[in-house]
Design goal:
Blueprint (H helix, E strand, L loop, with lengths): L4 H12 L9 H15 L2 H11 L5 H6 L7 H12 L2 H4 L41 E2 L14 H12 L5 H18 L7 E2 L23 H6 L12 H15 L7 H4 L4 H16 L18 H29 L2
Parallel strand pairs: 1-2
Helix pairs in contact: 1-10, 2-5, 2-8, 2-10, 2-13, 3-5, 7-8, 8-13
């Protein structure tokens, strides 16, 4: 399957001008995951996911903003890509959703899934705070409701006999959360003497580059989707590079790509946190600020990791959908 890369870039840049939130992997990364996944879906499942996404309340908006000459095949791919960003959009740009906090409430609301009738943002579904400490600071256990538990639940729902409107909701969340847990900093919280309650996946760690925060730095590795000025050129370049690389899918390790256990995905990200994210130099113990600008190797290695994680996420997402979506 071959998609018009320039059309994808134009489409994404047009739609991103209306998006204002900062997201895990950013929208560029999430759409790259979906792009890889769509190419690995069977033709039957490509049609199936396209039918499901018609139930999303933003479907008409997505369709209306596609280039007029978009083929049916490309339309299915583009909408699948855009759908991967939807769970982030309800946190800021889509009205009517309730902010129920960053920590899962101790009520049935935490795992509520009523399809699009569910009006909670569920911010706590986006990450897994697996704890570690380099200086012996006491740890706080991982919350009981998190991205890993919800991926497992969504997979089960996708394989069930529930109605298509519910499956549509499950699908967009699954697209997004599989991408999230392949971003290393969505899978940990580091505890140190300076952050005894955890650093929130690097959100509290200050660095000396434009991102300002370590978590944002990793989110933006594939491009900063919030820019609307001349930075759009950089967005297009990064997206094109990512999508071009995504066409060379032989780079993904076959054994790793075939691993469809979400617990393994989380553990991979967690191990990367300890070996490659919180690595000194430049990231020392504590909350910084740390001089990332003085460590070009850190930037090079981080980008290489991000690209590999996005590709793996896409192949694995397709594997789950192919195997489990009825």
């Amino acid at each position: 399957m071959r998609f018009g890369l320039r059309s994808v870039v134009v489409l994404v840049l047009c739609l991103l001008t209306s998006f204002q939130s900062a997201w895990g992997w950013n929208s560029i990364g999430h759409m790259a995951v979906a792009y890889v996944a769509f190419q690995h879906l069977t033709p039957k499942q490509q049609m199936r996911v396209s039918a499901l996404l018609r139930h999303n309340p933003d479907y008409k908006y997505w369709s209306a903003n596609l280039p007029a000459n978009t083929s049916r095949k490309d339309k299915r791919a583009y909408i699948f890509m855009l759908a991967a960003t939807w769970p982030d959009l309800i946190k800021g740009t889509i009205k009517g959703y309730k902010d129920d906090g960053n920590d899962a409430p101790a009520t049935p609301q935490a795992t509520l899934n009523e399809g699009y009738r569910d009006k909670f943002m569920h911010k706590y579904w986006h990450y897994v705070d697996v704890p570690f400490s380099p200086d012996g600071t006491p740890l706080v256990p991982t919350p009981a409701v998190n991205a890993q538990t919800q991926i497992a639940a969504l997979r089960k729902d996708l394989a069930s006999d529930e109605g298509d409107s519910l499956k549509s909701y499950d699908l967009v969340w699954l697209e997004h959360l599989v991408g999230d847990v392949h971003q290393p900093l969505h899978c940990t919280s580091r505890f140190t003497a300076d952050s005894i309650t955890g650093d929130q996946g690097g959100n509290l760690v200050k660095i000396d580059v434009d991102a300002k925060r370590l978590h944002t730095y990793w989110d933006d590795l594939l491009g900063n989707s919030d820019r609307k000025d001349s930075g759009a050129v950089a967005i297009a370049s990064d997206l094109a590079t990512t999508l071009t690389a995504a066409k060379q899918l032989g780079d993904a390790d076959p054994t790793a790509a075939a691993d469809l256990n979400e617990a393994d995905w989380v553990n991979e990200s967690f191990e990367l946190d300890k070996s490659s994210v919180y690595v000194n130099p430049p990231i020392g113990i504590g909350l910084g600020p740390f001089a990332v600008s003085a460590s070009p190797d850190y930037a090079t290695n981080s980008l290489a990791i991000a690209k590999k994680r996005v590709e793996l996420a896409g192949v694995r997402l397709a594997g789950v959908i192919n195997a489990e979506l009825k």
